[in-house]
Amino acid sequence: MPARGGASEGLSHSGADTGTYDASAWNAAAPGHPDLSTPPHGTPLPVPPGSTAREHTPEPPASDTGDVGGARETGETGELPLVGAGAPPHGPGEQPEAGRGRGRRRPAKRSALLTIAVPSACVMGVAGVAAASVGDFGGDSATANTASAPTSPVKAAAANNRLDTQLADLSRAADDVADRASRTQERIDLKAKKEAEHKAAVAEAARKERERPKFVLPVTQRGLSAYFGQAGVNWMSQHTGIDFPVAYGTPVMAATDGTVRSQWNSAYGNMAILTAKDGTETWYCHLSSTTLPSGTPVKAGQVIAHSGNSGNSTGPHMHFEVRPGAGAAIDPLPWLRSHGLDPT
Question: 282 CB contacts (<8 Å, ≥6 apart)?
Answer without folding.
Answer: 218, 254, 255, 256, 258, 273, 274, 276, 320, 321, 322, 323
